[in-house]
Design a protein that fits this description.
By secondary structure, this protein is of the alpha/beta class. It has seven helices and eight strands, in the order ααββααβββαβααββ.
Length: 203
């Protein structure tokens, strides 16, 4: 099977990603954690729990007609690929994006790279690191067609934009690459994600 064009695969996968938010239930969005013997559980954002459920929902969706529109089964979803000792797009394989949509083993079909952050953990240093990862995967010789910075959890939209603006300016996110990188916000469980536009609108 010949994979579809990666531009089409990227555009269709981002539609799949936005819709996947409706399938992430409360228990995966906010995790109850034990706070001590006899105390009430504390509800916290846990990025790995959210990402694993999002991965599950996206994998399930990729088996339906919309997934086929995005290039499945040739294109597949992978999580936190360790690029060390591989033919990496990043020197030394230092970057491990949360999710990628690609055809494994075929660099010319790298479609979408995604970094995920909880809205209550938007400290500048981790945000800068994620933006550097997205920029590196977009600009590399074997770069990805599109990128997404996905923020989940309750927040105020303008605050998210300001935070991203500051972090993007700090790392010098190139404006030509920012056209292909979108800021997504998933405010609550069982809701579709909101596409806040390309990062060029934020920098």
């Amino acid at each position: 099977m010949v994979p579809i064009d990666r531009k089409r695969a990227a555009a269709e996968f981002l539609k799949l990603l936005v819709g996947a938010g409706r399938l992430v239930a409360d228990r995966w969005f906010l995790l109850q954690t034990a706070s001590g013997r006899g105390n009430e559980p504390v509800v916290r954002y846990r990025e790995r729990v959210y990402c694993y459920e999002l991965y599950h929902q996206l994998r399930t969706l990729s088996d339906n007609p919309h997934g086929r529109d995005a290039g499945a089964p040739a294109y597949t979803l992978s999580g936190e690929i360790d690029k060390a000792q591989l033919n990496a797009v990043i020197d030394g394989g230092r970057h491990k994006p949360d999710l990628v949509w690609h055809v494994p083993g075929q660099w010319q079909h790298n479609a979408v790279v995604i970094e995920v952050k909880a809205a209550d953990h938007l400290k500048l240093d981790p945000l800068r690191k994620d933006l550097q990862t997205l920029s590196a995967f977009l600009r590399a010789e074997r770069g990805y067609e599109r990128a997404a910075l996905l923020i989940y959890g309750g927040a105020e939209g303008e605050f998210l934009r300001r935070r991203v603006l500051q972090a993007a300016a700090d790392v010098g996110f190139p404006s030509d690459l920012a056209q292909r990188a979108h800021l997504l916000w998933h405010p609550r469980p069982r809701q579709a994600m909101q596409d806040l536009g390309p990062l060029v609108q934020c920098v």
